[in-house]
Amino acid sequence: MNSKKKIVTLAGVSLVATAGVVASTNEVKADTTSDNAQAAATLQTADQQAQAKVDQAQSNVNSASQATSAAQSQLDSANAANSAAQADVNSQQAIVNDAQAKVDAATSSVSTAQDAETKAQQNADQATSANIQKAQDAIANQEAQISKDTDAINNANKAVSDAQSTVDAAQKKVNDATTTRDNQQKNVDAANDAVKNAQAILDNSDQAKKQAQDALNQANQKVADDTVAVNNKQTDVNNAAEAKKNADEALKNANDAQDSAQKNKDAKQAVADEASAALADANAAVKDAQAKVDAINDKLASFNTITLPAGYKDDLIAYYNYFGNSNYNQDEANNLAQDLLKYRDQAMSQNKFKDNLSDDRVVDIDNLNSTDRAELSQFVASLINQVRTQMGTNLVISSPAADDYAEQVSQNYNKDNWNSADNGKHDQSALNNATDQLNISWNGENMGLDQSIFTTDYTVLTDGTKLPTGNKQTINDLKHLIYDDFISMMFDDADSAWGHATNFAGIDNFAAEKQAVGFSLDKFYNTHYDLVEANQKVEENSYTLPSINALTQKLADAKDDLSIKQTDQASKQKANDDAQNALSSANQVLVAAQNDVKDKTATVQNANDNLTAAQKALAALQNQLSADQANQKQAKTTFDSFDADLATKQANLQKATDSLKAEQGRLAIAQADLDNANKALSDANNNLAQKKQVVENDKEALKADNDKLVQLQNNLSDLQNAPKLLAAAKEQVATAQKALADAQEAYNVANDKLTSLKQTAAGTATNVSKAQQVLAEAKNNEDAAKEALDQAQQALTELRQKEALAKQVAEEQAKLAAEKEAKDNGYHIENNQVVDAKGNSVNGWTVKGNQIVSPTNATVDPAVSVTTNVNVDSKGQVQPQTRVTTNGVKTVAATESANPVATTTVQTREQYKQQLKSNNQLPQTGNNDSAVLSLAGVALAAMLSLFGIKKREF
User: Fold this and answer.
1) CA dihedral sign, ordered 500, 501, 506, 509
2) What is the dihedral of CA 248, 251, 257, 261, to 10 degrees?
3) By the 8 A CB rule, do 843 and 826 touch?
4) Is the terminal CB of the chain with fewer CB neighbours within 10 Å at N or C?
5) Of 862, 844, 837, 867, which is closest to residue 852 (Cα–Cα)?
6) 810 confidence band (pLDDT: 50, 70, 90)
């Protein structure tokens, strides 16, 4: 912005210089045509350049606006993609959370199923005949206890019944005593009334007589009502007695049904116990048979075999027989030896050692006992016989004597300090000495030079197995070592002319018809496989060798036996299921019968209570009738007494008074009897409550014992069905584990998708950030482009303003040149033509009115001197100034300019000359063009300033 301001300032200064020119028509020549054209051309180019800059700037703005719009669109798209990606992440997160919840639930189900399996396995382990019998005995004992509980409840119920009878009797006494007391109270009340009546009769009161009549009428009606009520209640008592009779009969039938159900249940229990015991025995038999099958399968799974590749047998025999060929050739023998190597890779691939967990016992290889050496020798013999069976040669045996021979050979090697791993030779003296020592002839010896296996930490076995160093090894590892030696000697023996292979294969001419093999380790940890002649001594107590064929036959036999046992088990299981179902049904019938007895007992009790209540109510009504009848009698007596004489009335009063006293005495006795009866009733109720509590206690004991019985029966059922329950538990575990695996897989898939979606969301978020940056940059670029456009437009405006001023100056210069030309040459009008002072026609000049017009279209008065001053005001406007010379006055207007200038200058021609004089620049003869040149120079300077030519700015 500062640079722009400086350029404008410089342009203003130029304009001032241009506007301040004073030209004289007497001193200036019109010779600036070419200069004007050049300036116009220059201005034309500058205008085009400025317009081009504006156009380019506008294009830049348009491009920047498009870029901003595109960036905004890209940001909107990025935001939409990011929102969609985040929504996908949120949705997938919910799916992952649900999948995790399912994994957790499945994990819990697996744990629950495994716990159930553990319990089922424990139950199966405990499902022995002894434990099943123990469970059955516990059930029998518990049933006996329940029988005792039932007897105790029955006895307690009888005690309750007796106590209830006592309570009922006591209650009856209380009721009777209460009735007696109440009746006696009525008697006292009646006696008191009798005293009052006797007194009233003695007084002969009409009112009393009327009251006596009313009382008699009421007494008569009351007796009549009481009689009806007693008759009705007697009907109720009769009905209640009949209901009690029927209830008693129903209870008797229910008890009979319960006794029958109990006997049936006991019979079914005996059958169920017998079936359960039989099933337990069958389960145990199946378990034992299955264990035998599993054991044989384990042996077969870990039975190590040797399989000869097809063609190997014939090539090995051919190689060995070639040594007896009359045309024997060493090269051909070597070729045959090499041919056998083609079977090596196949043989190594198809013959792999199988570990046996039962052989994981650790032994000291420096001190192998006879049992361990015998087991290892039998393993060697088994491998040899598998080869010889396929080769069609004689089999070997394994025996204690053969083991002793091999061990003696190792001791002789040790004694001779003979390490074949160092010298690469057999110690024949050790072999011969063993023959002499034990009277056993040897036929051959194969050795494995294996000392490095136990002394260096290095993988040495053919299959890459690294055995531990040191003398502590497992039988399994030693068998693995033997197996490794064996397949190496059989299939990779070219360096030894296949001598080891022919020894083991039994095709060596030195092989006896009967051979035995023994195994041993010397102190250098080299293995010895010694083949000896099987004489009588060697054959004695020979071992039965493990055979895969024998094992296979044993497995078949064991499976047959298992099948028989399983069939028997299934039969026993069905019989047990039937017996248990029958027992369960019998138990249900018994329980139903027991419940029916309880219901019928309650019905009897209710019928008895109803009868007692009806009888009690009848007795009360009968007592009421008796009392009302006595009252009726008394009322009649009282009424009749009104007709007696005075003496009789006085006697009656005294009699009534005495009777009142007597009745009051009897009332005191009745109240005492009632109090005693209430106390007896309270004692009876307390005793009844105690007896009922005993019943409740016995019922709780019975319930606990019944619950225990159910538990014992369930335990027995679990033991009897142990295989089935265990199989079901295992199946449940498998199902739960599969569900867990499926849930875990679903979770993994969902989580992988979530991870992918998160990565996508991270990418879309990055895209949003990048789009925001691009938009910000595009907006900055657009703002810069708009600012550049503003600057270019302003520059164009300024240029056009300067061009207008330059045009004005050019026109003014043309005007001055034309006036000078006309003045100098005396141009004037003759005959409507422009002629010079000599009267010659001037080419290109025309007449317009009273004026002449130059070829540049400048209008000039003929033979007129004109002085033109140009004034530029403070607003940058050009103001014409006129001065009058001796030749006349003419006003000429200058073109306006919109450009600002620094100052305003007004000069006359004389003032201009005076200025030139003061500057020693007054024009001289021959310098008439200097004024024009000065004007042109000032104009050029103005134009150059428009084109950006300026001093260095700081």
Assistant:
1) negative
2) -150
3) no
4) C
5) 862
6) confident
CB 928 within 8 A of CB 28: yes
Q: Using CB atoms within 10 A of its CB, is residue 315 exposed (0-12), middle (13-18) or buried (19+)?
A: middle
Residue 228, burial from CB neighbour count under 10 angstroms (0-12, 13-18, 19+)? exposed
For residue 157, give both structure tokens.
Answer: 């119920």
The strands making up 527-533's β-sheet, listed across from edge to edge, are 396-397, 515-521, 527-533, 442-448
Residue 306 corresponds to which amino acid? I
Q: Give CA–CA dist 563/694, Å, rounded.
A: 57
- Output the pLDDT for position 308: 96
Classify residue 860 as exposed, middle or buried by CB count within 10 Å of its CB (0-12, 13-18, 19+): buried
What is the token pair recorded at 946? 């428009």
Both tokens assigned to 876: 């940058």
- Type of residue found at 457: D
Q: Are strands 851-853 and 846-848 parallel, antiparallel or unpaired?
A: antiparallel
Given a contact cutoff of 8 angstroms between Cβ atoms, the answer to whether 575 and 273 are in contact is no
Give the CA dihedral 546, 548, 551, 555, nearest 10 degrees: 170
Tokens representing residue 227 in the block: 């009689």
Q: In this structure, what token pair is assigned to residue 777? A: 């940059």
User: How many residues appear in the chain?
Assistant: 954
Q: Which tops the pLDDT comparison, 806 or 321?
A: 321
Query: What is the CB neighbour count within 10 angstroms for residue 501?
Result: 26
According to DSSP, residue 342 is labeled: G
Average pLDDT score, the chain: 82
Q: Give the whole-angstrom CA distance, residue 414 versus residue 420.
A: 11
Strand-pairing partners, residue 869, are 22, 881
Q: Are 572 and 282 in contact (CB under 8 A)?
A: yes
Q: Are 373 and 402 in contact (CB under 8 A)?
A: no
Q: Which long-range contacts (CB under 8 A, 24 or more apart) does 336-339 make?
A: 337/494, 337/497, 337/498, 338/494, 339/315
What's the N-to-C CA distance of the chain in angstroms? 13
DSSP 107: H
**Residues 361-414: tens digit of each pLDDT:** 999 999 999 999 999 999 999 999 999 999 999 999 999 999 999 999 999 999
Nearest partner of 262 among 158, 124, 143, 354, judged by Cα: 143
Task: Return the minimum-mean-pLDDT range out of 296-310, 735-749, 855-869.
Answer: 855-869
Closest alpha carbon to 575 in 844, 274, 333, 157: 274
- Residue in this structure with the two tokens 């996508």, named with its chain if needed: 760
Distance CA 250, CA 257 (A): 11
d(CA 615, CA 620): 8
pTM of the model: 0.42
Which tokens sit at 151?
């007897």
CB 308 within 8 A of CB 390: yes
Strand partners, 442: 532
Q: How far apart are CA 399 and CA 545, in angstroms?
A: 10
Provide CB contacts within 8 A for 651, sequence distance 6+: none
Alpha carbon 354 to chain centroid, angstroms: 40
d(CA 838, CA 70): 78
Please check whether residue 914 is in contact with residue 25, taking contact to mean a CB–CB distance below 8 angstroms: no
pLDDT digits (tens, 9 = 90+) for 117-145: 898 888 888 888 788 888 888 998 988 89
Task: State the DSSP code for 302.
Answer: T
Spell out the residues 6+ positions from residue 795 whose beta carbon is closer than 8 angstroms to its own.
Answer: 50, 53, 54
Read off the tokens for 484: 């490794």
Task: Identify the band that residue 863 occupies on the pLDDT scale cut at 50, 70 and 90.
Answer: low
Q: Are 877 and 859 in contact (CB under 8 A)?
A: no
Q: Do 453 and 462 form a contact (C-beta atoms < 8 A)? A: no
**CA-CA distances (angstroms) from residue 879 to 11, 158, 198, 789, 933?**
19, 150, 167, 34, 23
